């Protein structure tokens, strides 16, 4: 029992360190723009959510590796939009997490913002060349007659992911376009961002005594129970996923998942009053109309760009 407590405590501490930049960045951004510690807490909790797509909760390790779900399944615009309908501040934290991840290198897998729609593209190729004429730069397809009507350029190369973690390496070339940046996980920028966000959060609390007082009141009130129940459920999912990833006791990780779900239900039940009186920040009619218009425009543009056998580059 003592060993289990030690292992669990160590895991939670390591999890916190790995997500520190996300937690503090989401918290300080929300605090500065809202002045509300409760919203900042929700955003910080929301920053945990995207990385649940690496914990093998829903799929086998082989499927996870082949389909490259990390930085895709819960790091995309569709998932963030759904989370937005549940809670704006959780969605903000998750978005800021994904935003920061999009600055990481191909080794760390960047972010696949357009998942699952990006998976509709089955083939991609390195077909782009630069041709400078008249002081300008034109991008041209090397293969002037590609077999696909729509082409994704700059597919991820399995050569470029050789330094990735074993479960994140690409063992075959895939066309699933991701967004990358110059920063590496756990290195200089990541460390600076964590320290900077934490120091700014402390500074904000010091120069805004009302915020600090509201945070203290929140910690001593029952209002904190629902978000902390949600956070407990998320941490249990992380712990269960880590146990499953390392092929430990099946009953143990299943227990963690079940108990985690129980905490999710508790959090939802305790938040039901707020949900019933929740005022959606956008007009539902606008959202439905905008979705229909954008989809119709995308379809029309695709048909026009590929008519009469023409090729188009995404």
Q: Please provide the ordered H/E string of secondary-structure elements.
A: HHHHHEEEHHHHHHE
Taking all Cα atoms into account, the compactness measure Rg is 22 Å
List segments where confidence is low: pLDDT < 50 over at least 5 consecutive residues: none
The first-to-last residue Cα distance is: 55 Å
Number of domains: 1
Number of helices: 11
Helix content: 55-70%
- Strands of the widest sheet, in order across it, are 1-2
Largest sheet: 2 strands, antiparallel
**Structural class by helix and strand composition:** mainly alpha
Instruction: Count all strands and give the number.
Output: 4
Your description of this structure?
The radius of gyration is 22 Å and the shape is globular. The mean pLDDT is 78. 55% of the residues lie in helices and 5% in strands. It contains 11 helices and 4 strands; from the N terminus they run αααααβββααααααβ. α1 (2-34) crosses α5 (88-101) and α4 (77-86) packs antiparallel against α5. Strands 1-2 form a two-stranded antiparallel sheet. Strands 3-4 form a two-stranded parallel sheet. The chain has one domain (2-118, 184-313). The longest helix has 33 residues, at 2-34. β1 (128-133) and β2 (136-141) form a beta hairpin. With 314 residues, it is mostly helical.
Concise summary:
This protein is mainly alpha-helical and 314 residues long. Helix content is 55%, strand content 5%. Strand 1 (128-133) and strand 2 form a beta hairpin.
Comma- or semicolon-separated keywords:
314 residues; mainly alpha; two-stranded antiparallel ribbon
């Amino acid at each position: 029992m003592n060993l289990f407590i030690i292992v669990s405590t160590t895991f939670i501490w390591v999890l916190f360190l790995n997500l520190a930049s996300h937690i503090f960045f989401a918290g300080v951004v929300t605090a500065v723009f809202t002045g509300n510690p409760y919203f900042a807490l929700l955003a910080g909790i929301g920053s945990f959510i995207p990385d649940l797509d690496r914990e093998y909760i829903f799929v086998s390790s082989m499927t996870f590796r082949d389909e490259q779900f990390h930085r895709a399944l819960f790091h995309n615009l569709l998932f963030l939009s759904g989370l937005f309908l549940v809670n704006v501040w959780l969605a903000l934290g998750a978005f800021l997490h994904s935003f920061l991840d999009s600055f990481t290198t191909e080794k760390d897998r960047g972010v696949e913002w357009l998942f699952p729609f990006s998976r509709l593209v089955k083939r991609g190729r390195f077909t782009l060349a630069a041709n400078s004429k008249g002081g300008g730069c034109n991008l041209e397809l090397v293969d002037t007659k590609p077999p696909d009507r729509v082409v994704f350029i700059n597919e991820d190369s399995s050569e470029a992911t050789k330094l990735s973690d074993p479960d994140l390496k690409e063992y075959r070339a895939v066309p699933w376009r991701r967004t990358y940046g110059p920063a590496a996980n756990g290195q200089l920028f990541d460390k600076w961002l964590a320290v900077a966000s934490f120091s700014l959060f402390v500074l904000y609390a010091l120069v805004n005594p009302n915020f600090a007082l509201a945070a203290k009141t929140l910690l001593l009130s029952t209002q904190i129970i629902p978000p902390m129940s949600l956070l407990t459920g998320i941490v249990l999912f992380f712990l269960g996923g880590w146990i499953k990833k390392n092929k430990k006791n099946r009953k143990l990780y299943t227990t963690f998942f079940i108990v985690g779900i129980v905490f999710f239900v508790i959090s939802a039940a305790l938040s039901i009053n707020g949900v019933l009186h929740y005022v959606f920040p956008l007009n539902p009619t606008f959202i439905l109309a905008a979705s229909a218009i954008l989809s119709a425009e995308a379809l029309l543009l695709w048909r026009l760009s590929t008519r009469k056998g023409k090729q188009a580059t995404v």
